[in-house]
Amino acid sequence: MDSLTQACLGGAIGGAVLGRRLGRRAVVLGAVTATLPDLDSFIDYGNAVADYTFHRGFSHSLFVLTGVAALATLICSRLPRARDIPARRWWWFWWLCLITHPLLDACTTYGTQLMWPLAPPPTAWPLFFIIDPLYTLPLLIAVIVMLIRGRPGRAPLAGLALSTLYLGFAISAKAAVIDHITPTLIERDLVDRPVMVQPTPFNTLVWRVTVIDDGRQLEALVSLFDGDQAPRFDLFRRPQVDYDSAVDLWAGQRLAWFSAPFWRISAADDQLLITDLRMGFPGSYFFAFVVAEREDNGWQAVTPRQPQDLRPDMSLLPRLAARIVDSRALCPADFGDRDLLLPESECVMPST
Questions:
Q1: Where are the transmembrane segments (predicted)?
Q2: Rounded distance, CA 196 to CA 211, Å?
């Protein structure tokens, strides 16, 4: 999630745990502590793929952050001004402010390496877009109230309760979307294919559904207000150009671990390009990487970089509001990738 949300969550937790003892200082200290895991964003790992895939790594590990919380608690138990507060209070303060950061990040599509230094694929439970005002607002109001009053009162618990209720709504909304699309997946013999259901930007009312079916990528937008209307999928070709060459590269292996099977491998202008299909919409993706260039003897690895012309089109996002109640207001193919659109598409036909 964005830094403001993380800071507000930490500030609310700080006010709830230590507000009576420290007043405003608990809010400020909690907000600062909750943003510390994202300091890894300032680390240069050497190339674009490394920066992309090592982010939310060691600094978001449940093991590392639990150790940091224990060390901070030990230090506080030795400091004269902090010893008046029981060590168990300090423990809950440090641990909750730190541990909720990666757990909240794991509720987004990007994925978080909760088990570092173990190496399972990053954990992702897509429930929120990276910025979701309805989750942040109760926490922000709570923090402002605490800073103005100088004492916690009921504000931190109220903010945490409302944000948690919204989290529960997001879980229920996603479950409803999955129930809605499952009959269609069964009917089309796609139920065993990789399926990703994630919220669209800034809301949890319209959800993006992506299905990977070998050389095809099926995309649909599903609203909680679609009623009994079956999802209408736009279908795209999913190039896997020189797959073996790509996965032989370090960058290919790293991206396969990070995002496969929701990726594609394409070639353009003598460049081998790997695109993460999870971030953005068809034809309007946030993350793609040049990993090799063609030479006389085939593909040669290059230092991974993002294409200079990668500029996701955000102009259609306002139409998401209309898509909440109108299934014809916006389709996945509206964002682009028309050259990959297949004739059997149902939402936007290739001729339109």
A1: 58-79, 91-112, 124-148, 155-177
A2: 7
